[in-house]
Amino acid sequence: MDNVYITSAGIFLPNEPVSNDEMEDYLGRINGKDSALKNRILKQNGIKFRHYAIDKKQQSSHTNAEMAARAIDHALERSSLSPKDVELLAAGTTQADLPVPGFASMVHANLGFSACEVASFQSVCASGMMALKDAYAQIKSGEKNNAVCVGSEFSSRLFKGSRFEKQNVKSLSFDAEFLRWMLSDGSGALVLENKKSSKGLSLRIDWIDIKSHAHELPLCMYTGKADDKTGTEPTWLDYPDYESASQAGALNLKQDVRLLDRVVQKGVAHFFELIDRKKLSTDQIDWLCCHYSSEFFKQPIKDLMEKGGALIPDEKWFSNLTTKGNTGSASIFIMLEELMFSGKLKAGDSILCMVPESGRFITSFMKLTVEGAAAAGEKQYEIREVEAPELVLKERPVSEWLIRQLTNVWIEFETSLLKVPVITKMHQGSLSMDDYKLLLHDLRQQVIDGSQWITRAASCIDIELFELRSAFIKHAATEHKDYQLLERNFEALNEPAEAIRTGKKNIGSMALSAFMFNQAGKPNPIDLLGAMFIIEGIGKRLAGHWGRMMQDQLGLADEQVSFFTYHGVADENHFHRLEKALDHPLMNMDIAEAIVKTAKTTARLYRMQLEELGNY
């Protein structure tokens, strides 16, 4: 699957910034009176400036589609992607200019694009993330090479004083007035491609995770009905005419503020779930772009994170709510645009984006990794989605527990390997021939010990566990000549065999071999099945992939890289034997826990071996 990169970003914020004191000059006063609630709400939300696409006569200066198109133009001006080459336009908004047709079609009409696929997403704040997820998935799968995503909002025209005066109201309810001082207009766009930008930093999309909670929570933010006391009220289309619907307040945008603490709770619960699923770790997050609608909600989010032991400190939070306003689905795009071009990011930084939605409660997260500009002519290699080698065991509680734990160990292991210098170079296409020779040299010093510790382990297994002893012996038989493959690859590079045969173990290899022999000498060292899971998993899952990358970028012949390409095929069969051993009828929870601990230790020491190449 292709990597997906955000290679450019653009924004459009209509007209001049509007201060707190000027807001009613643009939105209009209801019955000529200043709002009694405005200052209280503004004090809580912390917003100082925002933009409106209406003037002081409440006349529109732009359409929502025009604003979206302007943001896209801005993003493409910064990009090497031609507008004529865009393959997908995905757009999100809370309310388009027209009920029909789709918003993306209306945006497309304002752009200098050729024919392309379009996708329209209508929700509230999460609609922008939905558009991003669609574009990300299509590029990731290879269906598209590029896409443009946009989030755009034109909320101010819903809050014109004249609209409320027509309803003959003397004052607004808090639920209706709350949003009047919260929301504003603007758009943001991102360019997504299956390759890095050559012009500057790119943001690799690692994953996007979106969840709806509508099945368990009531309506919170809505328009189209007068209220939601019973859930059965008529919608705006059920009234005898549009005037009646408007007169009843069914077209007002409202929010039940009493429910807003629930969106905070659901958002942080989703955050903890991602941690449990090993999708993220707080100590690896350098930036948190959190779309909260009001500064009031920042502290409750932090408090819940801290209670769960996963607080992200203040200095890692990034928001431009106070200066750009709350622009709903566009907010995360506008936030990322500012951060991307701020000069604050550096290659390797990890960004977590958090976008909750109060409509009927949606929570969404996206993880990004900052990467440097691609060098001219430099070929990038796929960083595949991290996943554990599949274990197929009989359905028993202990087996199911073992699979879950080993899966977690593997995901943490493979993720950590991506940060090891030699692996990073493979993916960046910058591995040198000297790097490859050093890798062969240092692996050989540890691999030659493999069959020996497996044989020792077999000799320490009681006859009552004959089948397990046989499994270890068979495993040793397939491993005992592996070091010879490494030697032949080394010699095929015109290096003397003596140089690899008389080499020393690096300090990581020493630690790994010492641990293996120590465990192998214990009575019934069944826990070494955990070590086999890691080592055979490397063969099944990674060796062939690494071999193909190195062969391609270094121009290696088959006989110079066969150690890796052979294991990419042969270890599939080795893995089936491992599954059979793990399915032993005497398997119990004590043995399973020992297997997991040994797997975890082996994974850490194997990583150390690769980190310490050349360190003797």
Task: Describe it.
A hairpin with a 4-residue loop joins strand 13 (350-357) and strand 14 (362-371). This protein has helices spanning 23-27, 38-45, 64-77, 103-108, 127-140, 161-165, 174-180, 242-247, 260-276, 298-307, 321-324, 331-340, 397-417, 421-428, 433-447, 450-459, 466-479, 482-492, 497-501, 507-520, 529-554, 558-582, 589-611; strands spanning 5-12, 18-19, 49-50, 88-93, 117-122, 146-153, 186-193, 202-212, 221-222, 254-255, 287-290, 317-318, 350-357, 362-371. It has 616 residues and is an alpha/beta fold. The longest helix has 26 residues, at 529-554. It has a 10-stranded mixed β-sheet with strand order 5-4-6-7-1-8-14-13-11-12. It has a two-stranded antiparallel sheet with strand order 2-3. A two-stranded antiparallel sheet has the order 9-10. Helices cover 45% and strands 13% of the residues. The model has no long low-confidence stretch (mean pLDDT 89). It is elongated and about 90 Å long.
Give the count of helical stretches.
Answer: 23
| Strand percentage | 5-15%
Strand arrangement across the biggest beta sheet:
5-4-6-7-1-8-14-13-11-12
The end-to-end distance, rounded to whole angstroms, is 37 Å
* Average of per-residue pLDDT values: 89
Shape: elongated
